[in-house]
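User: Could you check the structure of this?
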Amino acid sequence: MNKRILASFAAVSIAVGSVLACGGATQLTPTQGPSPSSLPGTPTSTLAVVHPDREDSLPAGAVKMSPETDEHPPQVLSGEYEQPVPLPGLVNTAGAEDSPFITPDGMTLYFFFTPDVSVPVEKQILDGVTGIYVSKKVDGGWSKPEQIVLQDSGKLAGDGCEFVQGDVMLFCSAREGYTGMHWFTAEYVNGEWRNWENTDFEPGYEVGELHITADGTELYFGSERPGGAGGLDIWVSTKFDGEWQEPVNVAAVNTPDGEGWPAISPDGDELWSYRNFGIWRSRKANGEWQEPELIISPLAGEPSLDAAGNLYFVHHFFQGDVMIEADIYVAYRK
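Assistant: Sure, the predicted structure tokens are below.
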């Protein structure tokens, strides 16, 4: 797990232990790899659990930002895309919608939500609403999201980093019974996400936020493991005989500035990543990744693409040096 993510989730792990020591039982919001290839299609519904409403959980005085009030709006720097816009529908609030993951058919969006960006991560797990959500595309807009609960009732967990392929979800979690952050999988069965279990990767790989290719053979992830260009780099591990092999640095896309949050296009020909507050794309030529180009900047990150090439990402709103909130944006392919 890369050190930046680990530091945040270590705080969550400490908080879990502290709450348990105090007798708390509030419901909240990584190695041997999973094998999510060759699975059925995208789930069409999720487990419905009664939790506090996202809107009701927003702090008093929360400010809903918009493109008109944005001091640093994201701009497309490529003629292939329309200018980015906030996701239409009911996903975005005055809280923080983050870490989008779009399914290849473009009909299901998973994301992370927390109502107040000023609240420390170790306290977010106690609010009952922070965690992973799902929304469906309906008549061109996005439906009211539902929270996905991936923990037994009455037990604490801080879940995020979601990646979905077929009927399998990978997610990272700091939870009761574990020290630090770990990777888990869950299965979509009869309209519910269930059967979550620990599926950590080899600890020495230090796997951060990840993306597995559509054929299930390559695992791309961000990590500060030794041997890279410096800081956070993109790495790739290949599956052989059912096991993820020693990761290789994707040198073509890495710089001393730090790269992370990789996403592979559904056709496998594009590698998208985050660097210097922007989203970059590398194309594959003759089986090799090429030098990346900046596509969207500033304050754009965590890219995710559907099969039509539409680009979903998170945009953080700042006023001066203070982050106000975060929304999911989309740049449609022309």
